[in-house]
Design goal:
By secondary structure, the protein is an alpha/beta fold. Helices cover 30% and strands 31% of the residues. It is built from 8 helices and 8 strands. Strands 1, 2, 3, 4, 5, 6, 7 and 8 form an 8-stranded mixed β-sheet that branches. A hairpin with a 5-residue loop joins strand 7 and strand 8. It starts with a helix and ends with a strand. Bound molecules: S-adenosylmethionine. The site of S-adenosylmethionine (SAM) has 24 residues, from helix 2.
């Protein structure tokens, strides 16, 4: 079962979503100001738009047809934007191309048998000094515990996934709340900012 069959369009539900605080923090903390960025699982393009406004060139990847439609409305004065309508595991990440890779709330949806290769490709895609900003679901997240095709990681696994990157920030939080459709959800989220030396 694919993610598309398991869940409604996130982009359709969240078209007003703003920039993720972890991304703003990552830019502040690393001092990264511009360059070429890859937004994996861009959804409703809240982070893409923020990066374009900051002056980044942005390549977005998302298989959701709603995201493809929304991409037509993403414009930027000076920056360049491209959209790939596919799953990241089917997309060739160009080696040594990116000063920033953003993978917020998307890694849990990548099939288990593809995640190590995608992680290696992300590392290869970063230039020296490049930054990765990403989140995972932890093993106690209620979507992970459910029979949905959504994968959780232990803190140890998350820390070891991106071989060759140095950790800048690692945070874990857990709380009972709601998902984007208003259903009760136990959130167990791991947050990472890493840099390529
Ligand atoms: C929970 S949303 C997060 C969207 C955005 N990153 C954010 O934080 O608002 C997950 C997004 O990842 C996309 N997605 C799911 N599986 C994917 C895959 N294998 N490769 C790329 N994107 C994927 C979905 O279509 C959806 O837009």
């Amino acid at each position: 079962m694919s993610v598309g069959e398991a869940a409604p369009s996130y982009a359709a539900l969240c078209d007003t979503r703003k920039t993720h605080p972890l991304l703003a923090y990552a830019l502040r903390r690393t001092g990264l100001r511009t360059g070429r960025a890859l937004d994996i699982g861009a959804g409703a393009f809240g982070d893409t738009r923020y990066l374009l406004d900051c002056g980044f060139d942005v390549d977005a990847v998302d298989p959701d047809p709603v995201a493809t439609e929304l991409a037509k409305g993403v414009v930027s004065g000076r920056s360049r934007f491209t959209m790939v309508a596919d799953e990241i595991q089917n997309h060739r990440i160009i080696p040594d191309a990116y000063s920033l890779v953003v993978a917020l709330h998307v890694l849990p949806f990548i099939p288990v048998d593809a995640i190590d290769r995608v992680a290696d490709d992300i590392v290869s895609g970063l230039r020296p000094g490049g930054v990765l900003c990403c989140t995972h679901f932890g093993v106690r997240d209620s979507w992970v515990i459910s029979d949905l095709p959504i994968n959780g990681v232990t803190e140890r696994r998350a820390a070891q996934l991106f071989t060759g990157l140095q950790p800048i920030y690692f945070g874990v939080s857990e709380h009972d709340g709601f998902d984007v459709e208003g259903n009760p959800k136990h959130w167990h989220v791991l947050r990472q900012v890493l840099i390529k030396a």
